[in-house]
């Protein structure tokens, strides 16, 4: 029971939408770099 109670109070350090924005920006940057390398 103590483990279940400890799991229920765990929270993210930032809002969930901030993770989404960060992941989107990271993948967009990686895609841009890959496309740039493909042009050369």
Offer a concise description of the structure.
By secondary structure, this protein is mainly α.
Explained architecture:
The protein has helices at 2-8, 16-39. It is mostly helical. It has a domain at 14-40. The longest helix has 24 residues, at 16-39. It starts with a helix and ends with a helix. The model has no long low-confidence stretch (mean pLDDT 83).
Shape estimate: rod-shaped
How many whole angstroms does the radius of gyration measure?
Answer: 18 Å
Biggest beta sheet summary: none
The number of distinct helices, counting runs of at least 4 residues, comes to 2
Low-pLDDT runs: none
Q: Termini distance?
A: 59 Å
Keywords: Membrane, Transmembrane, Transmembrane helix
Transmembrane segments: 16-35
Please write out the topology:
Blueprint: H1 2-8, H2 16-39
Features of this protein?
40 residues, mainly alpha, 2 helices, 78% helix, rod-shaped
